[in-house]
Amino acid sequence: MLHKAKKTYHHGDLRAGLLSSARMLLEEQGISALGLRAITRHAGVSSAAATPHFGNLMGLLSALATVGYEELAVALEPVLEEGAHAAGLVYVRFAILNPGLFTLMFRSDVIDRNEPALAAARARTSGMLTRLIDSLGGQQPQRTQAGTRAALWGKVHGLAVLAIDGFLDVLLSSQGEGLSLEDLLEDALR
Amino acid sequence: MLHKAKKTYHHGDLRAGLLSSARMLLEEQGISALGLRAITRHAGVSSAAATPHFGNLMGLLSALATVGYEELAVALEPVLEEGAHAAGLVYVRFAILNPGLFTLMFRSDVIDRNEPALAAARARTSGMLTRLIDSLGGQQPQRTQAGTRAALWGKVHGLAVLAIDGFLDVLLSSQGEGLSLEDLLEDALR
DNA sequence: AGCGTAAACTTATCAGTGATAAGATTCTTT
DNA sequence: AAAGAATCTTATCACTGATAAGTTTACGCT
C-alpha cells in the first residue's frame, strides 16, 4: 500500500509485502504490535489474506525470524576468518541494529521452531558459530570444548540481550563520559 | 481452591493466592498460559477478582516478576563474599530452576518496569551484582570498569538464557558423554 | 453494640483478537 | 477459450482483557 499505487485484486508478492510490513511494525512498535490485523492493515489487505501464504500468525512470525537468521549468517560470514572477537562484535551489532528481529528470533512462544525453513536457517547460522569457536583450538587449555563454546556464546549472546534491554547504557552512564557503546563492546569482548 | 476448603465470599489473601496460581501456571505451561482468566480460574475466583489487587494483567505479572527479583537477591546474598564464580553459578542455577519466572523478569512487553515495587526490587538485585563485580578490583587490568561489568554480566546472563532455551544441552550432547550440565557451567564460568 | 462506609468479589457486557468457512476475483494450464 | 486452482474478501465464531453495576463482607467510628 505504501509503494504500489495500482490496486489489483492480486497483490503481486503479498508474502514479501507482509513480511516487510511486519518487520517495520516490529522495529517501530515492538513485538506486541505484531497482530495479524495490524500487519495486514499496514500491507493494505484484508485480515484473512495472510492465510494462504503463512497459515496462521505463528507461521508468519516464524518466516520473519527465518529472515533474521539468514541475515545474521550473511553478516557473520565475511568475518569468520578474523576470529571470535570480530564475529562477536558483528553478532552484537546485528542485535543492536535489529533489536525487534533479534528478540523475535529467540521468542519460542511466538514462533514455531519446528518450521522446516526456520530450523534450517537456524542450523546454518549456529553451525557457523560453533565452527568458528572450535577453530580457536587450544586457546582455552583448561576448559572442555563444550565449556569454551558455552562461555563464548554465552558472553556474546548475553551482551546482545543486555544491550537491547538498555542495561549497557546504564553501565555507560555510571562510568565516566568518554566511553561509547562501541568502545564498551570492544572492551567487554576482548 | 487447592488448599482451602472453606468457601467464604472473601478469599483471605487472594493477592498471594493469585500470585501462587500464576507462578504454577507459568512454570508448568509457559508464559503464554498466563491469561487473566486462566489464573483466576486456577485460584477459584471470578475473572474480575484480580482487579482490586493488581489493576490489570500487567500489574499482576509485574508483581510476579518482583517476587522473582526478590528471590534472586535472597539466593545471591549468601555467596556474594565468595566472588564472581560462585555468584554466577547461583545466578544460572536460579534461572534453570525457575525458567518461566526468570524469563518473565526480562519480558518488558508483558511487565511494567516503572511499577515502583518492581523497579525497587530490580535496583536492589542489580546493585548487588554491580557491587560484587566491582569488588573484584584489578583482576581485569586491561579493561575499563564498565567493560569488566559488561563482560561478566553478559556471560552469566547469556549462559542463563541459553540454558533455558536448551542450547547448552545441545552443546553437551555434541560433547562426549561424561559431562553434566553442572560441570559445563562450572567450566564456562571459570 | 451496631451502623455506615469502604473494600472485596461476582455478574454481565463490551470492544478487540486470531481463525475459518464461504463467496468473489484473477491467474494458469491445457 | 474453458476449467481449475490459487489468491483475496466478507462474515462470523469463540475467546481475551477490561470495566461498570450490583452483591456480599469486613471494619472503623460513635
TrEMBL record, chains A, B:
List the stretches of this chain annotated as a DNA-binding region: 35-54
Query: In its UniProt entry, what is this protein called?
Result: Putative TetR-family transcriptional regulator
* MF-aspect GO terms: DNA binding
Q: Where is the HTH tetR-type domain?
A: 12-72
Keywords carried by this UniProt record: DNA-binding, Transcription, Transcription regulation
Keyword Chloroplast annotated:
no
| SUPFAM superfamilies in alphabetical order | Homeodomain-like, Tetracyclin repressor-like, C-terminal domain
- Tell me the InterPro entries matching this sequence: Homeodomain-like_sf (IPR009057), HTH_TetR (IPR001647), MT1864/Rv1816-like_C (IPR025996), Tet_transcr_reg_TetR-rel_C_sf (IPR036271)
Native organism is: Acetobacter tropicalis
